[in-house]
Amino acid sequence: MPREMFKNTISKFIYAKTKTICDELWDFRAKLINEENLPTSFFPRYDMEYIGNYGRKLEQWLNDDSRNDGAFVSFSADEKKFLLDVYDKLTFGGFLSFNDYKENEDYAERALKWLTDYTVADEIFYKKLYENNKALFEKDVSPEVTCYLADLIEAKFHTLHKKVFALFEAKIKDLDEMELFQPTKEEELKLILKHYPLSKIDFCFLPELKDKYETKEPNLFNDEELKPSKQSVEIKSYDEIMEAKLRKRGKF
Question: What is the reported pTM?
Answer without folding.
Answer: 0.80
